[in-house]
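Please discuss these two lines.
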Amino acid sequence: MLSESINYPRNDDGWVKTVLIGGVLGLLSFLIVPTFVVIGYLLRVIRATMHGDEEPPVFDEWGDMTIDGLKGFAIALVYGLIPAIIAGVFGFAGIMGAVAGNGSQTAGIFGGIVALVGLLVAFVLGLFAAYVIPAALSNYAETGRIGSAFDFGTLRPILMSGKYATAWLMAFAVLFAASLALSVLNVIPLLGQLASFLLGPFVTFYAAVAAYYIIGTTWGELHDVEMVDEGETPGEQPAV
């Protein structure tokens, strides 16, 4: 599946245009809305691959894609907020404990321990959130209902399966390899850093599409999603 995921973004004659659009949107991510569009596209990748479609989707119906991406962003944000809140609470408790101790060494050590424990707990929960989010987005992509992203009755058996764990690690490896390649460019002064800045969004987009190919395909295999017939797009009803 790893080699298939790398080739997947190129399984369409217009793949260069798609990657160029995705990369430009990445460059414009500081405007926020382009980020929603990219997330919406990745949700399309999940929908297509879970139904067995071997061709990547295209950028069209921009309004629908943006709204879809906004919902996906909200789902990821909810999962990400929990570790952030816990880290903030423990950090605040550590600072207040040190302040309440009037600067004593014991209070300072205790405050540091509380803050460290908070960071460790937040790290573990953050890693768990990163593990859950692709499955949550997949369930949302399949049903179209935001509540499905938090349906742990459906998510639990997927998350506990070795196949999903392997797919998640493979997707992570694809993203990490892309990040590593860009980091190597950053080592080269000026020219390499400029190349990394300009190429980064395009490489990252390509890697994200490949990674979510793995997630979507695995979700379809684990969740018994109905495959599409040749010439039929995911979500369409067969002709009667």
In short: The chain is about 75% helix and 0% strand. Helices lie at 2-7, 15-27, 33-50, 62-100, 105-143, 152-159, 162-187, 191-222. Residues 2-222 form one domain. Residues 235-240 have pLDDT under 50 and may be disordered.
